[in-house]
Each structure stands twice: as structure tokens, then as C-alpha cells.
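Appendix B. Chain record.
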Amino acid sequence: MAHSPLHFCTVDDRSTLPLAILQGLEQDRERRWQEGYVDGVQLKLKWRASVIRHTLNILPGETILEFGAGSGLLTEQLDRVLAGANPITGIVFTPKLADAAQTRGIQAATFLPGDNLDELPSGKFDYVIGAGMLWHSGLLECFRRIHTLLKPGGQILFFEPNFDYPARLFNELRSRKDRGVNKQTVVGACSEANFVDIDLVPHDIVSTQLGVQHMQRVQAKAILLEHCPLFSSACASVRVLARKPGFCEKRIPNLATLTQLANAVSVVIPARNEAGNIPGLVKRILSLYGPYIHEIVIVNDGSTDNTEAVLNGLAASDRRVRPVHRSKPNGVGLSLRAGYRAATGRYILSMDCDFVDLLPQFGGLFQAVAEGHDGAIGSRFSHHSILVNYPFMKLFWNRLCHVAIKLFFFSCARDVTNNLKLYRSEILKNMELRSPHFSVNLETGLKPLLAGYDIIEVPISWVNRTPEMGSSSFSVRKVGLAYATTLFGFWRSASLTRGRGAIQIALRRVWESIRS
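C-alpha cells predicted for this chain:
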């Protein structure tokens, strides 16, 4: 297999970088992956594949380029996570590793040598991903090449060594190849290559040296540390995310493949001053899951913008859109109650107006109820979830709330406070909801579990609102007390029911939590 050298300019365009540097990076990374704690590495690569899927919200049929695919270890995990539904092109800079990648027999993957990079057509790929291939003097030219290969609106996601990771523990990566690369140079090169929405986030605080069993136990708990500024330097990697400007009309696949859910789902959405978000959300729900949708009940919670007019217009154009207009007093809890009462489908999908980017991930919820579960909750804190721009204090109080839930109620609960739930409709219709505001999400999460319904959690990711979506009315200070009051009410009611045994059960769960 012949290879001609690829030349990359440095960030200041004063020298060139031969293909040997990219080969060296690829080989160093493969050596770490294959000579270390192999089982732990495989688990971490599986998590990374899930992060790629959830962060980019990859739809079936979208195209992916892996830059520096090596022997195909990450490619294989990504193909499994995507169920072989996406064509993956792997660029391999080391001939020996290319041969190893081919032997994996990944049906959806095509591996090409590095000198084929220039031969790929411009604007071919929806996404470019990679690991450990960017930190070198040719960073700018790498970004430029990748930018050319992406479609308008296409995204990149790379996992690279964390600049702040202690050098004494990371000497093999703090080599001459990546000296002088820091957050400022990366953001500068990315911007100069005409990328936007650039985000560098610490990632991977869970060490493979713990072993698979302990990695699985601590991964969800470690999310809090990854988002804490004081501990970010302990993360071995940084997640690099950016987007090519522009828009490319995509073919929207039909994700409604479960015939038993045909015309069965009522979507209930509370909305206050969401006129700008509602049309796109409704269009995308119907595009992705149209055969499932019995109706979309959108509760206008006393909006002061033109939400009412927008809803009435949508209802006139599609009978499945059913507006419910409320006046004061306002409140998410009051809106959800009204929406649940109005819903007429066999199942109710409860969600928020800013979940448009998460819609491709709803398949797990539908699959759960199709398999016979009474309901499913979208969990932001599973092993395979990802949080994007999640405010640290909001995360802290959320995790504290769930510690209390685990100690006194359900030791397996990860995320019952998210307003992303798909239940049999009678569960929500017959539920007495007391909270008028955001803490109603705690009620809809805990009450079915306490009542003995078969509710499971499925992985889902969470993306903070972009400025274009407007601001949320959620306030940690205001909501925190309401959550605490609601949780105490649950505990008091359960304690009265269980009597003396309540304290013993709680203490036992404390001990079990400490052990795990």
C-alpha cells in the first residue's frame, strides 16, 4: 500500500508537518488502547461511541468520517451503537493499522489510507469524529481539511488529551508533538478555519485502571466532578465540538417503526412564550414519529408573545395539533395537569419545548413501552448519556436530590426529575399532582414508582437552550425549595405507611450506597 506524504501547515503557516506525525499520533493512541487495561478501554470506547451518537443526534443514513481510525476500535463500537445504520469512512494513516481495521469486518465501515484524504469530495460528510489526532503544529490545516469535507451545518467531535491534566501523570501525551497547543490556540485555529459553536469540555474523569466493574459504579457519580471547575484538570480528555456554518437540507428518516404504537401517542408540551420554538418542534415531531402521533397537545401557559396565534395557525393546518389556552395563575405543573386531562391517546409523552434536538433519541422510550413496560423516563445520568452546557449548580442540586431519593426510596433511580416521560395514559390521568411549578416533574417521576408501576429509565442526553431558543424560566433557587418540600412530603407519607421499618430501610440504603 503506497503512501505519499500529507503536508499540513502549522498554525502560523511557517513550516509543514509530514504524514509521519499523524502516523505517530495514531500509533501512540493505539498502543495505549491495546496495551493498557483492555476491558476498561473497550468500555470507555463504548461510552465514547454513545457520547458521539447522543451529542450529535445522529440520524440513520447520515455519513461519518473518522479521522485517524487506526485499527477500528472506536469505529467498531460506534457501528454497534448506531446499529449499522450509518456509513462510516475511516481514514487510517498507518498501513499496518489499516490492515487490522479491515479484518474487523465492519459492514457499514470503509477504511481508506491517509493519502486518500485529498481525493474525498468536498461536502461529503455530516460528521467528522476522532480521538487523539489534533494536538500538533498542523492543527489549523487539519481543521481546514475537515471543514472542506463537511456538509454545511456539519459537526466535528474529537476526544483529545486535556491540556490541564498533570504532566507527571501524562508524560507520554505531553510530548514535543503537542507543546504549545492550549485552549486558546485550538479555539483560534478552529475559528480561523471558519468553524462556529466551538466548545471544549473536560471529559473522561473515570480511569480505566479501576476495572470495568468499578468504572460502571462510579461513572454516573463522576458526571458531577467532570462539570465542577475545581476537578476539571482531573479529566484525562477534552471533548472538542464545533460546527461548519450553513444549512444542508437533510432527508428526515421515519423512526416510527413499531406498528403497535400506531396512532397511540399523545404528546403533551407546556409552553410559555415559545412562539419561536413551537413550529419547528411540531414539524420535527411529525417528521420523525408521525405514524405514532395521535395528537400534540400544547398548553399555552398564559403567554405574552404570539404563542396563541402560532398554535391556532398550526391547529388549522393539522388536526393533530390541539392547543389548550390557559390564563393565570401560571405554572408548569398546572399546564401539565391541563395537558394530561386533555390527552386522549393510549400513551402520553411529556416533554418540553426545547427538546427539539433530542427528538432522534426518543426511540428508546417508544421501544420500552412497546416491550410491555408501563412507562419510560429519559435519563440524563445513565452510563451512555451526555450533558452539554449543563449549569454546574443545577447539576449539583439535581444530584443531591437523587441521593436523597436513592437513600429513602429507590436505590436504582438515576434521573426521575426530567420532564421527558412516556407512560400509559391512565398513569398520568389518575395521578394527583399537587405542585403548580417545576417540582411536578419529581411527582411524575416518583409517584408511579411508589405505586408499583413498571417504569424504566433509558439513556437520553441534555443540551442547554441556545440563545435562539430564548431563556428558560427555571430557577435553581426558586425550584430547590419546592423540590425539597415535595420530597419531604413523599418521605413523610412513606414513613407513616411503613412505620418503624422506614428508618431501618433508610439506614440500610445509606450503607448500600456507601459500599457502591
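Further analysis of this model is presented in Appendix C.
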